[in-house]
Amino acid sequence: MSTTDRKLSVSIERFPIAGVFSISRGSRTEAVVVTATVSDGGVTGRGECVPYARYGETVEGVAAAIEALGPMVEKGLDRDGLQEALPPGAARNALDCALWDLDAKRAGVPAHVLAGIDRLGRATTAYTISLAEPDAMAEAAHAARERAILKIKLGKPEGDIRRLEAVRAAAPDATLIVDANEGWRPELMRDLMRACADNGVALVEQPLPAGADEALADIDRLVPVCADESLHTRADLPRLKPLYDAINIKLDKTGGLTEALKLAAEAEAQGFAIMVGCMVGTSLAMAPAMLLTPRARFVDLDGPLLLARDRPHGLVYEGSTVAPPSPLLWG
Fold first, then answer.
1. Measured between alpha carbons, how far is 32 from 271 in angstroms, rounded to an integer?
2. Residues 165 and 279 in one domain
3. What is this enzyme's EC (predicted)?
4. With 60 as the cut, is the pLDDT of residue 105 above it?
5. Which of 7, 250, 253, 262 is catalytic?
6. Is there a binding annotation on residue 179?
7. Per-residue pLDDT tens for 118-127?
8. Is residue 283 part of a domain?
9. What residue numbers bound the domain in which 148 lies?
């Protein structure tokens, strides 16, 4: 590392959610994000992460972990060095994405070019329907029925078939993704999978808890099954191969774009379908994940659509289509 004029700053920001966002583990009304900003002379790079209690993270702990690397950043810490300095997770993600942004701006080329991607186009994203009673989910699905892909949050297994049927009736033409967020149980899986197949579901995401997903090896996967909470980095792929058909890559799990790009390439080589997903955050968190969309069969980058307000220069959504980021935002 060489001495530079770099400075690191960290901030905690709050963005209200439009209504309530509910999954099997609970509900919330705001997105609390941590933003890392690395400045070097007149050039600035930013990255955003969403600390997640499911992985033992707190907002304060993540902010402190990033701040602790201030001296290393000021001495020239690069993306490769960062992979050793922090473990996978939200803290590394924010700083990794800030360094990608900084490097792109210093080089005067888009971040996707730095990543070896010739062209970054528009992508079609899923739109999330929060977990609720069947009638409420049907009403939300009906309001969003013009969107091409609906991701419906389930995970209360005794009522999930009714929820699924209600959503399908309300949005008969939409591609459906079911996300159980670890809320199903092995003894109910056959009935739930049959209901998914009968209702034309395209993908079932993380039906069983990450620590108890071995049961998937003995269940007929009538619909492709995608690992989310069970998948963080490339090190997880060998265990997941007999259990899942697809993986959901989220930068807050991989610890940033650097690992995410390597994970996508290796997973694709092993025959996994790729889904690129997100936590509920602003366009600044979605922008780096857009670099994964050329490899993805499913894209779920609707975080800003769930917020009451987004950042300036946010991603441009036209219905279900999202455009690549402006350099005014990231990259």
1. 35
2. yes
3. 5.1.1.-
4. yes
5. 250
6. yes
7. 999 999 999 9
8. yes
9. 123-322
The predicted model gives 105-119 an average pLDDT of 97
Number of structural domains (the chain) is 2
Q: Find the helix packing angle between 59-67 and 90-107, rounded to 10°.
A: 50
Output the domain CATH number for residue 54.
3.30.390.10
Task: Name the catalytic one among 153, 241, 253, 262.
Answer: 153
Catalytic site residue 262?
Answer: no
What are 6-41's pLDDT values in tens digits?
999 999 999 999 988 888 778 889 999 999 999 998
Please tell me whether 228 is known to bind a ligand.
yes
Given a cut of 80, whether residue 2 has pLDDT beyond it is: no
- Concatenating the DSSP letter of every residue in 134-194 gives HHHHHHHHHHTTTSSEEEEE---HHHHHHHHHHHHHH-TTSEEEEE-TT---GGGHHHHHH
pLDDT at 295 over 50: yes
Q: For the chain, where are the alpha helices, taking DSSP H only?
A: 59-67, 70-74, 79-85, 90-107, 111-114, 134-143, 157-170, 189-198, 237-240, 251-254, 257-269, 283-289
State whether 313 and 206 are in the same domain: yes
Q: Is residue 115 part of a domain?
A: no
Q: Would the annotation count 173 as a binding residue?
A: no
